[in-house]
Amino acid sequence: MKTQLNFQDADAFYEQLLDAHQDLSAEQSELLNARLVLILANQVGDAKVLKECVAAARQFPG
Amino acid sequence: MAESYAETAYSRGCEFTQGSGYALPEYPFREPPEIASGQPGHHEIVIVGGGITGLTMACALAQYGIGAVLLDEDNTVGAKGASSRGICYTQKSLEIFQRLGIYERIAAKGIQWSVGRTFAGEDEVYSFDLRQQGAFNLSTQPPFINIQQFYIEAYLVERIYELGNVDLRWRNRVTAFEQNNECATLTVSTPAGDYQLRADHVIDATGCHSPFRQWLGAAVTARKGDDRWCIADVRFSKHPPVERHTWIEAPFNDNRAVWQHLMGDNVWRIDYQMAPDSDPAEVSRAEVVRERLVRQFGADCEVEIVWVGPYAYRSECVERMRHGRVFFMGDAAKVVSPFGARGGNTGISDADNLAWKLAAVMKGRAAPGLLESYHEERHEAAQQNVKVTARTARFLRPATAVEKLFRTATLSLARQYVFARQLVNTGRMAIANPYTRSSACEPTGGLSVQNVAFEWPDGSRGTVNDLLRWADGRLLVLVFGSASAAALQRLAGLGAIAPVRAVQVLGADDSPGAAEWIRDPKDHLQGACHVFGHAWALLRPDSYVAATGESVDATLVHAVGRALGTALEEEETA
């Protein structure tokens, strides 16, 4: 799993992500996020990297 | 409520069953000789339970020429009442039944299918055609046949009567069990009185309510869910396509799941997901079932309800498949949800796995230690099947709001993008499970070999099963391509010290060198044995490769020893 910067344009992505949620209900936003997780997971593909990503996401800082 | 479902969990009990039912054969009770003599009989093998697993075990032993006694508590096949239970038999099971001599009857009565379609709401989200998949296309048996389980059981019974060797004892119920260093002792209750049997080996094929688990104190890992289903086996005036149709969210079933599948005699199995924790007696009432069918097929469709059975998700697995003299198999060893037909088919393979090993040990061809590999191999299969079916159960019955959210996301993506269809899990069809941690297999082995065709020396067609029958319970070494004189001599020497038969498998233009040879002009046999080019494959009687390798050397000799539960030593060659 990459922990160093890999975005070509981090600010632009963040903006796109927020824009995508504009005008959506909480329920629609949840669905968008779930769809996005699955779409991105398929881009990664590699089982070991995915496992590390899921574990990392669950590790909330104290 | 959960208790009454447990009692009806896809097996023997059918207190809530409805419908006109099936006419089942009945077999005669004969007074066991032990009752008149007053002496306990002694048998090498006693099989308890005459379901599909116990009968497959009995038939396989009979075919190997091994005697056994089978005890069954009633006098018919199918559950008491008129149950149909399992319906879908995999290629591996069909190959086993071909070897046992009942495949032709199954093929004539059953329905072949290879197309499955999955719907959400009105839309098809996913479909497959198994015939297009490489894993299925080599065998002379089709990917699947659907047929009521009791037909197969009845064919097995007739085949066992034909073969002899196994004493089928109907209306013989085992009521107590104990074992020590000498033997196992079974107390058996019959209409003519009680008696005792002593046995060297006991096969527990009594199903998911196995009394042996308690008698042996066998540890069981179990999980129960709140999901409820209700099967309706029906005949009707509509004729849907011969495909497996699955709805994840069926508009005609309150957006819950539905299965639709054809069996023999034009009977369709429609399996409805019910509301969580619903009452089994209520959901299986004839009027309620009829109403569901009308909602799906329309009021103008004439429906005859043949059989109805409610069941609950249930997942159980014993921690050890062997307890001293007792071997657990089929549902006695593990219970899974029915998705992917991983129940009955696993029991059939359990039986096929243990039968050749027990036969080999009885005939002095293998060491008793080989029997340990039954646990190693079939427990791995059981655990895998529990894992796979639990994943399907979780997709079909999301436990929390977020699990439901991900399913909704998956279904919406599956309508748009190919990749997401793979996430839609309506059941992963049973396969011949690979063995990765067996003491009887090398790391190169542990894979099933499809029943592919080849050419005998006279140009006629043979199949892997013909070779296995010819080997008659011995191991089979297939040597692909031309072989050196030294290799052929070594093979002959191996045949002298171990129960092994060797066959050279030639390409279209190779010249034979060994005494026994066949041709594999399209390399199908080679592909089925998971090898390429000059190679050997060590085939077991259950049509699994124990090992594969390149040159005929000490690795082959070692693999033969391992497959027989012993260490082999070659004799010095002059």
Average residue-wise pLDDT of chain A: 97
Oligomer: heterodimer
What is the CATH topology of the largest domain in chain B?
FAD/NAD(P)-binding domain
SSE order of chain A in H/E notation? HHH
Give the overall shape of chain B, derived from the CA principal axes: globular
| Structural class designation of chain A | mainly alpha
Radius of gyration of chain A: 13 Å
CATH superfamily (homologous) name of the largest domain in chain B: FAD/NAD(P)-binding domain
Strand content of chain B: 25-35%
Average pLDDT metric of chain B: 90
Distance between the termini of chain B: 75 Å
Number of DSSP strands of chain B? 27
Report on this model:
Chain A has 62 residues and is an all-alpha fold. Chain A has helices at residues 10-21, 26-44, 47-58. Chain A starts with 9 loop residues before the first helix and ends with a helix. Chain B has 574 residues and is an alpha+beta fold. Chain B is built from 17 helices and 27 strands. In chain B, helix 3 runs parallel beside helix 6 (149-163) and helix 3 (52-63) packs parallel to helix 10. The longest helix of chain B has 25 residues, at 372-396. Residues 1-17 of chain B have low confidence and may be disordered. The A-B interface holds A 30-31, 34-35, 37-39, 42 and B 405-406, 408-410, 412-413, 417, 419-420, 423.
Kindly summarize this structure in a few lines.
The complex is a heterodimer of chains A (62) and B (574). Chain A has 62 residues and is mainly α.
